[in-house]
């Protein structure tokens, strides 16, 4: 601390009011303590502190205004004020009426020997909040660090234990950044010697070209079809797959080499008859779509891509077929439920919506294909928008019901006519939904937006049978 050189000349003689104003303006809290350690006066530099502390400090021992842990510091501050003109800063904690604690840093000065002591305090709430934020951030960093260490340990263990060759390749340079032990065994090199070398290396010319095409496709679109590759020396064949991996601003390629058995050619090569079938399906005038058990597209022919307004099959692959059907969340669920129950669906009428807003009336026939535990579904979608034909003629009961309805106008209250008409329309919709879903009540309830219990109640109410097709005719009153 550096004192004034000549305070009497520069400051003059300050009266009590001026000194009080000076103390109030420079301190967050100023307390006057008598020689018995009792608070005789108090001043706050802001309204925030005055609202936090109670007004009954005056007349109480100063030691009673702090938490028990801070009393030794306060006693040391008062003891130091007995001997020194001005004390060092000491921190104490005051409890508030809200139950929270406020840290305050005090410096005390005795006005006269054996007289009162003036304590000037600084509010440390802001510093305490920053310190707590720093502690919380440090703890969060430590938790993240250990979590990342655990994830990295599991990754390293899995990377070493997997039986397939896994290579991590720098995307721009196509050099191997990391390789697991299995890659060294399958490629005939130690993993340390594989790292840093360009990929592909050691494959025949056709395989090298196929792998380069695979990597280029993954860099451009994020994924590509697997390719077959053969080592030049051993003749070992692999199924090569790749995926794109991004870390911060760096791109890597995760390449997997799965060894193929020696007789795999016979199981992969399609017979001539199967090849003819594939060519016919690819060029068929009707849409042909094959999906997995969840309805996600595995392959689709060019006709479907045209109706769906999709440029390439790659854009449709992996997407749900429900994305292009006219009633999202309904049509595909009805189709899948019937396929799982009956194995086939015929002439299911709906619409196909293109990516740019076009709508086409279509009929869908489908079949379920069992492949062990993984079922596949084949959908054959026909454009019926240009089909010549008239709307189905109304049944004789429908015009007669409408005629009876108009004849009763004026004789029956409108409210009753509306109620009977609503019941009739509701029954017609339920019958149409049952007919559309092949009398599958669960699918019909989903199509109508009803719960199964509500649909069953309405079917019992209207006396609808599974093969019901006639419209109700209200009785005259």
UniProtKB/TrEMBL annotation:
Superkingdom of the source species: Bacteria
Cross-referenced InterPro entries: Homeodomain-like_sf, HTH_Fis, PAS, PAS-like_dom_sf, PAS_fold, Tscrpt_reg_PpsR-CrtJ
Ranges for domain PAS: 151-197
Protein name: Transcriptional regulator PpsR
Species name: Marichromatium bheemlicum
